[in-house]
Specification:
The chain has 154 residues and is α+β, with helices and mostly antiparallel strands. 34% of the residues lie in helices and 31% in strands. Strands 1-2-3-4-5-7-6 form a 7-stranded mixed sheet.
């Protein structure tokens, strides 16, 4: 488990945000035949917009959260592979729940590539329910999940 609190990312964190995101998603490139969308994100823009949260010194966990009028969108969660199995992902997901509650939003939504089958086992364990599988933008085969605020333990 991380010993550092989760905090909003700053401009100084942008290189680490990119490095952690790339390290976390790199192994999917061969499986899905393209770079995963989080690797292509404009990390500087996301940080400047207040959407990115990080944990660790040095940074080893990253969240990209986008508040929408009716939900909190979990755009990306990344844990450096060196920290796998140490509770960082669990800590980040708990933060997402708390942040949604703090913002007064009724649910959290996310999607994951259909070829990222590990996530299809992880998200339901944290209270996310599968809403649908669909082809987004004509090329992204994704599973869409939601977690209602009533499913978030205080």
């Amino acid at each position: 488990m991380s010993d550092t609190r989760i905090r909003p990312a700053t401009a100084d964190d942008v290189p680490a945000v990119k490095a952690v995101t790339d390290a976390a998603y790199q192994h999917y490139i061969e499986r899905i035949s393209r770079a995963p969308v989080p690797m292509l994100a404009d990390h500087g823009e996301n940080v400047a917009a207040g959407r990115v949260f990080v944990v660790g010194e040095p940074v080893h966990g990253v969240l990209v959260l986008v508040p929408e009028p009716d939900h909190l969108f979990l755009d990306s969660i990344a844990v450096h592979p060196d920290m796998a199995g140490k509770g960082v992902g669990r800590e980040l997901l708990a933060f997402v729940d708390a942040y949604a509650r703090e913002l007064g939003l009724p649910e959290i939504r996310l999607y994951t590539n259909a070829m990222m089958w590990e996530n299809q086992r992880i998200y339901p364990r944290y209270g996310y329910e599968l809403v649908e599988r669909r082809l987004d933008e004509g090329i992204y085969d994704r599973f869409h999940y939601r977690k209602g605020i009533e499913q978030i333990d205080p």
